[in-house]
């Protein structure tokens, strides 16, 4: 009979340690799930805005390709890019992640009209934005990204008309 009670005590201890291990695993999974849902995050801030050309929202897509670039002033860290949609709205992404690290940025912008090839070859493009906006040295656009949500609307003008174009 003593032998039996020893076996029963061993089985009871095994069962108790199995339940404890199972509770620890369940607690760990719950904690992991909470961290995922709380967005322990990638520390990237969101930046969106509207690009206007000559006072009107620039409509990307449908033959127009327009992009906004944010380059860190410090030249360290990743740059971010946003493609302008059909409503003139852009949203920045860094690589495959949505958002950008907080900090100060020089902003550039470029828009081109896509011209399909008449022979079925590669399409060409015609710049519709002033070339000065495509360089950090001449764009005059600068923005400080804060933590969280940011909005930065960009107002640009068409390239100046050449004086010689209108003459005959």
TrEMBL record:
It comes from the Bacteria. Residues 117-168 are annotated as: Disordered. This is Carboxypeptidase regulatory-like domain-containing protein. It comes from Bythopirellula goksoeyrii.
């Amino acid at each position: 009979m003593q032998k039996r009670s020893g076996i029963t005590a061993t089985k009871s201890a095994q069962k108790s340690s199995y339940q404890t291990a199972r509770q620890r695993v369940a607690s760990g999974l719950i904690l992991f799930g909470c961290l995922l849902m709380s967005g322990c995050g990638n520390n990237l801030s969101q930046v969106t805005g509207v690009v206007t050309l000559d006072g009107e929202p620039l409509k990307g897509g449908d033959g127009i390709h327009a992009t906004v670039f944010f380059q860190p002033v410090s030249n360290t860290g990743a740059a971010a890019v946003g493609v302008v949609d059909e409503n003139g709205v852009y949203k920045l992404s860094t690589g495959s992640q949505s958002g950008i690290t907080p900090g100060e940025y020089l902003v550039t912008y470029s828009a081109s009209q896509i011209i399909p090839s008449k022979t079925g070859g590669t399409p060409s493009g015609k710049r519709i934005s002033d070339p000065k906006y495509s360089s950090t040295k001449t764009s005059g656009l600068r923005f400080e990204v804060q933590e969280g949500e940011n909005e930065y609307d960009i107002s640009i003008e068409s390239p100046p008309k050449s004086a010689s174009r209108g003459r005959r």
